[in-house]
Structure formats: C-alpha cells, structure tokens
# Entry
Amino acid sequence: MSGALVIVNPGGRDKIYQSLGNELTAIEPPLWVRLISGYLLDREVPIIILDTEAEQLGSVAAASRIAELNPLLVLVVAFGHQPSASTQTMVGASQLITDLKQQCASVPTLLIGGHVSALPEETLQLTLADYACQGEGTITSFELWQSLNGELPLAEVRGLVRRGDDGTVVYGPKAPISEDLDSDLHGNVWHLLPMAKYRAHNWQCFGDLASRQPYASIYTTLGCPYRCVFCCINAPFDSNRYRKRSPEAVVQEVAHLYQTYGVKTFKIIDEMFVLQKRHYEAICEGLAALPFAAELNIWAYARVDTVRDDTLPLLRKAGIRWLALGIESGSEVVRDGAKKSFSQDDIRHIVKSIQAADISVIGNFIFGLPDDDALAMQQTLDLALELQCEFVNFYSAMAYPGSGLYVQARQLGWELPKSWSGYSQHSYDCQPLPTNHVSAATVLGFRDMAFHRYFADEAYLQMVAQKFGTDTRAHIEEMASTRLKRRLTEKQAQQIDIRVVATPL
# Structure
C-alpha cells in the first residue's frame, strides 16, 4: 500500500527466552504499537500493524510481507512488554530491518523504543535503521511521515535522530511528551490486531490454564516517580513524570474488550498501578460495578510500601487476582542500596494481607544488586521460601540502558553484555553485573539454582496443589524441569560457592 505507514512489533522470542518462549511466556498486545497507531489514525495517517511476535513470523517472512506493501515508512517499535525488555527486543528489531533492507533497500525505517531513546547514536551505529527516535515516538512518527510527504522539513521533525550528509549524528528538536493520555494515547486500535493470538502468562491462570486466551494488556498510567537504580522505565520520557488516564476511559476499555473479544484475563501494564489511592480506587470501583466483574482475572504491579490493607477488598472485587511486588532482596542493607527502604516485617505483613484478601502474590527478587554477596543472596532466597508467594520471578541485576546501574557500570568499567540478547534474563548469553563482592558468573549461577530450588520446594508445591489443584502442581514441576543453557556459567560453574549452591532441598 504505497503511501501507508507500517508499524511493526518485532519478534525474536526464541533468542530471548530459549525454549521457555514456546508455551510458558505471555504473548501480549504491544502497548506502544497501539499508542502510536492510535495517535496516527487520529491524524488520518493510513497505517498497517504487523505483530510479528503474535503472528510467529520470522524476520525474513515479515520483511517480505512489508516489501509487498511498499509503504512510505516503516516504524519498528522495540519497547517490549516491560521496561527491561526494551534492549532485548532490539535483537528482533535489528534483524528485521536488516532483512527488509536486503529485500527493499529504499523503504525508510524508524526505530522507536526505550533502548533507542537511551542510546540513539549507538542504535544508528549498530543497525541499518535510517532514523532513531528519542522520546515516546508519537510526534516523531507523525512528523516524519509529514516530512516524507513533503509537508515538513526533515530538520524540524521533533525527536528524530539521523545521520547527516557528512556521517555525523544529527538531533532534531526535542519532542514533548503527551499530556492528555485519553486523547493522544488511547491506543484504541484493537480491530487492527490479531486478538485471537494473544495469551497470558501461565502463572496468571493457575487453576484454569485453559483461560490464558483470549488475553489483553492495558495501561492506566505512564512513568514512575521513583528512581530505583536498576530501572530504565523513564528513558523515553526524560523525566520521572507519572501521568494518568481517566478511570472512566480505563473501565470503558475493559468493557469493550470483554464485550467485543470475550477477554476476561488482563494485565495492567503500569510500572506501578497501586500507587496513588484516588486513581486506582476510582478504577477499581468502576470495574467492580461491571456486571461481569466476578469473571475478571487481572494482575498489576504494586510496591510493598504502597499497598494498603483497607483497599485490598476493593482490589479483589474489581477482578484483581494477582499483585506483583518488587521485594528485590532479603537483605535490608542491599534493599537500601537499591532505594527500596522497607523492613522484613513490612514485607511479611503485606504479603500475608494480600493473600488473606484472596489475591495471589507474584514476588519479584533480584540477585546481584551492588551490595550483594553470597550471604545476602542466600538471605533473599530464604525470604522467598519463607514468604511462599504463589509465584516468583528471580532476576539477576542488569545494567539496562537508561538505568542508574548502566551509568554506574560504564563509569566503573564493568563488563556489559556484548549483544542485545545478553540483556535478557533467560538467554544463553545472559550477562548480569558483578557485585562489589561476587562475579557475574556467581550471580547468574545462583539465580538459576534459586529458581529450581524454589519450584522444587515441597512446602510450596503442597500449597499450590491445595490452592490451585494437582494439575497446576504437575504443570509447575514440568516447567521447572527445563534447564536454561548459559554461556557464562558453562565454563565457570566451578567458581560458584558450592556451599551456597548446594543448599539442601
């Protein structure tokens, strides 16, 4: 379709997740593809969305499809489904652009995403993209389309980063972020997405694994006011702004997805949904009033220090069945260093309170924060086992571009991943940071050991069987039988502290 703009969600799940990507991971509607697409449609730009991840298209096949469309411009949106996924998504994004250039070299490409915004010059150096975007991507996409149509000088396109005629990198004027989310970033382009192909994470549907489809992810806020050293969420926004949609718009979107596509299983993609009480309470009151509220299965993020006991019953009535908590470490010293200042007792109380409200907890823990040593990592694993969250994510600390850790790592000369896939928690070439006390290999080896230690714990498995049924227990045991291959630990496993790794089951 000559003159149209193709907006692509790149794939590459096999390199990012290894075999885990086949069945266990979620396949989510791409948030920023939706938001940019809605912004462009409102301005009468002809668009086509190609979700190569959901369609399970390889980069060559996706490039062929794009070439057949003969678009005026291709937007490759490498945001991922959470902030830390942006860099790893660059694997599929770069390959797609390379394959597209081989088939149709004249089609201009614009790369958009968190990693791109944090490192625009490097993005242009390491990919064949014609342009990079510094910022959200909405204004830049529209103005570049205008420029290619001869309506605006290229130098005036806001947020655009490009190569000059002399090979130097040229920055356009800064693009402002959108203030009216309901009008500018509504993302109401569901009719252009392959809705039947999205699926929830396995853990969200414990007890009813068949309910993973249909599925949708929505947002109610953008940004985060906190400054956690390991987080890169605010890279595209260039500030710690916390912007909100209207509660009415959120409730209407959930109703639309339920009534039009039969979606009951949702993710609220906000980095921090349970934060401002007036905002999330209004949304929950609206959701709880829907006639199908009892059918909803929603999960959302919270912090230990933002959850309030008195709001938990309302959250549950609104269909929120899972809350993800960033517990991070079992060591108060390590948490303080990561700017997560709450006590062990605070953590225990909040986890128990959430579970008492019939809401399951997914605990997020990080091994390898700057002050971690072998003892502190063991304390983190011990706390996870004690809390007995219904599910856990064990991460190794990464210096994600756009985060404070990335700046620190560059300043100190620490080894960073040699490839974008090295920023994936589950890839073969995963390369976490060393700490002030232990090596990167030790961190990664401990993380992988901890994962299998947790999901083989008999007390945990008995709890799961009692709450979700024996089929779910069997599913978890099968999940935990998958062992990730790791380049970093294959040759260095003997260096890991055997006393720590061999903690008895």
Q: What stands out?
A: The first strand starts at residue 5 and ends at 9. The radius of gyration is 22 Å.
